[in-house]
Amino acid sequence: MGARPANMMSIMDAVKTCLEQYVGFDGRASRSEYWWFFLAFGITVFVAGILDGIIFGVGSTDPTWISTILQLGLFLPTLAVVFRRLHDHGKSGWNVCWVFLILPIFYLIYLMIMDGEAQGNAYGPVPTNTL
Fold first, then answer.
1. What is the C-alpha to C-alpha distance for residues 36 and 29, in angstroms, rounded to an integer?
2. What residues contact 71, with CB distance under 8 A and at least 6 apart?
3. Count of Cβ atoms closer than 10 Å to residue 98 Cβ
4. Which of 23-37, 48-62, 112-126 has the least mean pLDDT?
5. By residue range, what is the domain housing residue 47?
């Protein structure tokens, strides 16, 4: 078993590292770096959504400029830390990226096209298609 980091990265260090490696797809990211960055990202997006609601309103047609700009600005560092985390498992980020982008769509389409189970299951009886 390989050596793992002796200490967990702090949330501030994780955010700083991810932002400094804005497009740094090389290297590895520890679990703490990855999860702390995602926690910080989620909190930031949540706060930005609240600010959007306060400034622009909360209707479905109201703009969300702050959230949109924030998410676009953090897209590349988020993708980079995902790739670095995959590297920590010995996996290529690009190969796994294609698998996660393409396969779920085809699998979902497959499930939507194919017949369901011919007998009842844990979710209920076979649909009758009548009211």
1. 11
2. 45
3. 11
4. 112-126
5. 11-113
Q: Sorting pLDDT into bands at 50, 70 and 90, what band is 97?
A: low
Q: What is the DSSP letter of 73?
A: H
What total of structural domains would you count in the chain?
A: 1
- Mean pLDDT taken over the chain: 79
pLDDT in tens, 65-76: 999 999 999 999
pLDDT above 60 (res 26):
yes
Is residue 97 a part of any domain in this protein?
A: yes
Q: Which amino acid is at 36?
A: W
Core vs surface per residue 28-44: b (16+ CB within 10 A) or e: ebbebbbbbbbebbeee
Q: Is the pTM of this model over 0.85?
A: no
Do residues 14 and 36 make contact, with C-beta atoms less than 8 angstroms apart?
A: yes
> Per the domain annotation, does 129 fall within a domain?
no
Q: Do the beta carbons of residue 41 and residue 22 sit within 8 Å?
A: no
51 touches 74 (CB < 8 A): no
The pLDDT, as a whole number, for residue 12 is 93
121 within domain boundaries: no
Residue 130 domain flag: no
